[in-house]
Amino acid sequence: MQKKTVPVPTVAPVPTATPTPIPAPNAYLIGHRGYKTTAPENTFASFRTAVAKGYKAIETDVRFTSDKVPVLLHNATINRTSNGQGYISAMTYEEARTYDFGSWMGEAYAGEQIPNFKEFIEFCKANFVHPYIELKKDASTNYEDIQGLYEIVCTEGMQQNVSWFSFDYDYMLWMKEIAPTADIGIVLPGNAFIGITEDVIEKLENLKTGMNTVFVSDYARKISPAVLLRCKEEEINLVARDITSVEEWYALDPYYRAAFADAV
Q1: CA–CA separation, 170 vs 264, rounded Å?
Q2: Strand ranges (E), the chain
Q3: Which of 20, 85, 154, 192 could serve as a FRET partner for 119 with CA atoms 20 to 30 Å apart?
Q4: pLDDT per residue as tens digits for the range 87-112
């Protein structure tokens, strides 16, 4: 008797689930002092690295030498980021340029000089980068110094493509008067428990000219839903401070326009 062949059922393959795409955050990233995790901060090595990493906005800090040349430096002294010592406000630009601002981070960066502000604006223009310029508080800095920065920006035709901000509110009042259509803002101290208060909102309102945009920068963890709502109501832009991971970036509320980032 012929044996019947029993067909073996074919197991249908389980379809591979299509991963749900993660929507890109609204906030764009700003390279904090360039790309300072792997290159010496506030140098052209750092700025070039940021551009190579795809950053379209770069933050830097501006101070003045004794002969009133604006240079890029975070601290009041050159001690931390160069092979020299002393306050930048007490040395001439020529002297400042003799120091090495790169080798402290590695021999590959030996010979990096402190950039001047004009060079930085030229770099941003050539590389289609939006500069965020922090005006560092110094007793020797005056209204004319700030006005000079704006004139440099105007010479390069970048006046509508630059953001100005400071911890010092008076500097932003000066900038409001100097450049009524500029994007200006204030950054809040990181160690302050209280962040954006009604007093801060009032100051930001006072920075408006009707022709400009105004922003405030603070750590996202300090910005409550109620504060977020107040900023929306008053049309005050938000820029998050010191984002250090993609997860932090993607977790930002869609209202944030940008975030200062370290190596994201």
Answers
A1: 32
A2: 28-32, 57-64, 70-72, 130-135, 163-166, 183-187, 213-218, 237-243, 258-261
A3: 85
A4: 999 999 999 999 999 999 999 999 99
Q: What tokens were used for 233?
A: 């109501």
Is residue 70 classed as helix, strand or coil in its secondary structure? Answer: strand
For residue 74, give the amino acid letter. Answer: H
Please name every residue paired with 22 in a beta bridge, in sequence order, or none if there are none. Answer: none
Q: Where are the alpha helices (DSSP H) in the chain?
A: 44-52, 93-96, 117-126, 143-155, 169-178, 198-206, 225-234, 246-250
Query: Can you read off the two tokens belonging to residue 221?
Result: 């963890």
- Retrieve residue 252's tokens: 């930002």
Ramachandran area for residue 34 (φ above 0: left; ψ -120 to 50: alpha; else beta): left
User: Residue 14 corresponds to which tokens in the numbers above?
Assistant: 């389980």
**How far apart are the C-alpha atoms of 242 and 203, rounded to whole Å?**
23
Predicted structure pTM score: 0.90
